[in-house]
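Morning run. Coffee first, then this:
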Amino acid sequence: MPVVVRVTPAPGGGILIQFPYDMQTVAVVKAIAGTRWDKRAGAWTGQRDVLPALQHYLGRFLKVDPTVARPTSPKIDLSKFKLYPYQEEATRFLLERADDGGLIGSDAGVGKTCSEIAWACTLQDREPGSRVLVVYPNVAKGVWRRELRRLGGGKLVTCEGQVHRYLALDTEPLDNDPATALAALPADAWIGCHYEILKDWEDDLRRAAPRILICDEAHKVTGRKTQRADSLLAISTDTVVHRSGASGTLMRSGVKNLWSVCEIVRPGCFGGHWGNGQYEGRYVGYWNGFARRYCGEGASHPDEWGGYDDTGSSNEEELAARLTDLVIRHRREDVLPHLPKLRREMVQIELQDKDRAQYEKTAERLIKRAEATHGTGRQEILDQLLSLVDGKKLPTAVELAREALDSHQKVVVFTHFHKSLEQLQDAFTDRDGKLEPGVFVAPGWISPDEREPIYDAFYKYRGPAVLLGNTLSSGVAINQLACASRLICTTLEWLMDDLIQMEGRLNRIGQLNKPLVQYLVALGTIDQAQATALFGRATVFRALFGASDSADGLADTLDKSGFVDHTELRNVGDRPADVVNATLASMVQDFKRNRASGSRATSIVGGAETDYLLEDGTEDA
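And here it is:
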């Protein structure tokens, strides 16, 4: 019979976990990351964020002292920010965890930035003279400037440049050198810096001594070994007192990347700690406190070469329970029921015989090269194939866009590749070399400050219009695209997060139409491998954060299209590199089968046979 486990406050902070000796209970408590045996106290100890995991495993046998419960934030009037009720709830969630740190993991498009600004402004009212540092993707700079002015938080001073560094106020450079300009800022200034240049500004930002840190689109922190993770961990534990983060896709490329985000927002929550001014948990804290518990069997048991694989997932229910005190999540369909239902459509394209022959010839050549490299450069090889297939789908994209324009709609066309975007731009250019009326192009090779007026012009344009852009530069943190009623995507991405963020540009606050997202996929090509990878990634996301239309709806659309290869799904790992290797292996097998049968282009996609011409010119039955 299980014993009763009592949780009481520890004298020096944290909690004491006490119970009569029982081997089964010891095993349960010991297995939870963040707990350890304290010989002096004669009890197990931990922080308050292990309570959800204890509750998950011990249930009614867990007795928690009322003084351990998180104190409720005093009633604060947030009416001046004009927030939706769920945005107020997110703001209060962060305020209750102001000293610990919290994350907003709500769906893309529900307005997380407003909650973060309201949280920081409230803290500044409580603690005058608190400087705020906001870290964001470069494309989100304009959004933060605009929302900060609208909510009365003041103006954002942004860090610009890597070699030639300077500060800017509303795009206007400040004259002084960066160190002098930062020192001259008011004590309650808002400073902004994007992830790509954070390492170059780390020392100056630490000297600026911010007390409040906001990590917008926190999934951009990526892995624990990246320079931006290094810089954020250093800044977060220097002078920062209050921390928060937000992202609609926290689990960007696997469970393992959750560790970096959580440790930055709440240092030590998964076993990391600081000593002598240096972070000691990068390896020991990560492996012992997180990876071996939540990153699959490969993180606990070495392979034949003595290495560990942390790309999987395990104990998802326990991890989900632990995240409840750290992350608040609102699903779009729950908090914005008035939004029109997003529709998705997989537009299946059959390549012409000439295009099919070119694709297969290129694929066979690249597969041989990839096999010879033994893994090196395989991502670049796949990019060449994806670019080739993408080019074959552009005429269909142009046809669908013109169909939307003829129906007096605003439409957005996204592609991954710069070359494809240039071809799309040529398709909407008249004989004089000018863009047709109502056509706007926001390429990824220009700066976000240059793209911002293009988005504004598209939003304000009266009449049907089309915006052409790149998925990764225009598909995140842009609010002006809610005026469009159709989105055409020519390229599936390797990470579902990128597609969820892209859909959130239309499916968000301010959308009055019933938006349609059309994904163009070429039958019998590398597109099938991408669909399989995207479908597989939805499983772990659902286990940690619950079902939602963003991930599940996209996965269902992929599955119903017949593009998901459930046989290959079991062999695909969590990293993009695993998907690359599995894709190449699958393509090798396809070519061997086709060669053995004497057929060049017969392809089975999701159980549906697609017929093409054979080499002798006859038609396959």
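The two ends are 67 Å apart (CA to CA). Good start to the day.
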